[in-house]
Write a structure and sequence with these properties.
Structural class: alpha+beta
Bound molecules: adenosine-5'-triphosphate, magnesium ion
Helix content: 25-40%
Number of strands: 21
Strand content: 25-35%
Distance between the termini: 16 Å
Radius of gyration: 23 Å
Strand order of the largest sheet: 10-11-14-12-13
Oligomer: single chain
Shape: globular
Order of helices and strands: EHEEHEEHEEHEEHEEEEEHEEEHEEEHE
Length: 366
């Protein structure tokens, strides 16, 4: 990443007004600051400043994923429909279908990659010695979502980090699940966000409940019930809790918590899933255990909405004057302004400071 940049060379401009049809703060402030450009509903370009922020967020995610053994890779956005058909997900409403010369709608634009990675890894897993391992990518996903009116919070095209884990046993999966949870907290904290670890429902492809990382924000499309005292939270899709209920979860000392439950609007920035063996069974993903028996591989998958995360940072960190970037995700460390460029001495001093910052590897927008 370039360390220093002259603002006069930026091709983007700031503007006093944001998009008329996007009321969310992130759409307004990011557009006005020249960070993003809305090409169509739910489809955005990241302009040089915005792309730097995405770069910072991605760097944090990579560091934390690498720290828990994640191996970065990159999978195609163009996914042949036969992949998704093996799990019956070819016809799901959320995928954009692609018409082309090969055959009518032979492809979907990838909206998730369990099927793709299960196919790839089925070629390399033979024995228990090949497990466990963890692979992730930061890549564009496409989802035909009805509602795309919250800026970066919900796109038709968006950036996701998706991590997949492969294990011998459920026990090993849940051990790793705990490590991912801790890594996710670090990612969000470094982005300046406090997240609430929230119990969510499972589905046909999970072996138990899943968990979401929720950021409390008025603009959020999700509703969660969270205990004021112990922080235990459930999403509204599964929760039987109500506002002001007494929290019945148990504290480490075995006592009932009894705290007050609050209802909050929130944004889901990440989601983790204990998948179990459903994908492995669909794709013949097997290994031989120590006794020579063939067994299906146990999988987990773990998502972070990279672009949604950027929008969420803006929703949480702004005032009436604009965005207040947390240090680690700011496009530059310093913004140097020469207020009287017509004065030769002032200008020379500004140039001197600029050079000094550059020499010391301080990222500066001059
Ligand atoms: P939601 O309930 O918000 O639609 P999801 O449960 O469909 O999300 P996942 O499939 O788990 O989401 O995707 C992983 C992460 O990708 C989510 O936690 C979220 O942060 C992000 N994400 C999902 N859909 C979108 C979207 N349309 N635009 C931007 N980010 C998204
Ligand atoms: Mg969704």
């Amino acid at each position: 990443m370039i360390v220093v940049m002259r603002q006069s060379q930026l091709f983007t401009k700031t503007s006093k007004t944001g998009p008329a049809d996007e009321p969310s703060k992130n759409a307004q402030l990011l557009t006005r600051g020249g960070f993003i450009y809305k090409n169509s509903a739910g489809v955005y370009s990241y302009l040089p400043l915005g792309w730097r922020v995405i770069g910072k967020i991605s760097k944090i995610i990579r560091e934390e994923m690498n720290a828990i053994g994640g191996q970065e890779m990159f999978m195609p956005a163009l996914v042949e429909k036969t992949y998704m058909e093996k799990t019956g997900r070819g016809e799901l409403g959320v995928g954009f279908r692609v018409k082309d010369k090969i055959g009518p709608e032979a492809y979907v634009l990838g909206w998730t990659h369990e099927e793709v990675i299960a196919t790839i890894t089925s070629k390399s897993i033979n024995s228990y010695k090949d497990l466990p391992f963890y692979a992730y990518q930061i890549q564009t996903k496409f989802r035909s979502e009805g509602r795309a009116k919250s800026g970066l919070l919900r796109g038709h095209e968006f950036l996701m980090k998706d991590l997949y884990s492969f294990h011998e046993s459920e026990e090993d999966l849940f051990k790793y699940y705990g490590r991912v949870k801790e890594a996710y907290f670090k990612v969000f904290e470094r982005c300046g966000l406090k997240t609430i670890y929230t119990l969510a429902g499972g589905g046909a492809f999970t072996i138990s409940n899943t968990h979401e990382f929720q950021v409390v924000a008025a603009v959020g499309e999700d509703t969660i019930f969270v205990c004021e005292k112990c922080g235990y939270a459930e999403n509204s899709e599964i929760s039987k809790l109500k506002q002001r209920d007494e929290c019945s979860s148990h504290l480490p000392d075995g006592q009932k918590c009894g705290g007050r439950v609050l209802e909050k609007k929130s944004i889901e920035v990440g989601n983790i899933f204990p998948l179990g063996t459903k994908y492995a069974e669909a794709f013949g993903l097997e290994f031989q255990d120590k006794e020579g028996r063939k067994k299906p591989v146990v999988m987990g998958s773990y998502g972070i909405g990279v672009s949604r995360l950027m929008g969420t940072v803006v929703e949480v960190h702004h005032d009436e004057k604009g965005i207040i970037w947390p240090k680690e995700v700011a496009p530059f460390d310093a913004h140097l302004l020469c207020l009287s460029p017509e004065n030769k001495n002032v200008r020379a001093e500004a140039e001197r400071v600029y050079d000094l910052l550059e020499k010391n590897h301080v990222e500066v927008l001059y």
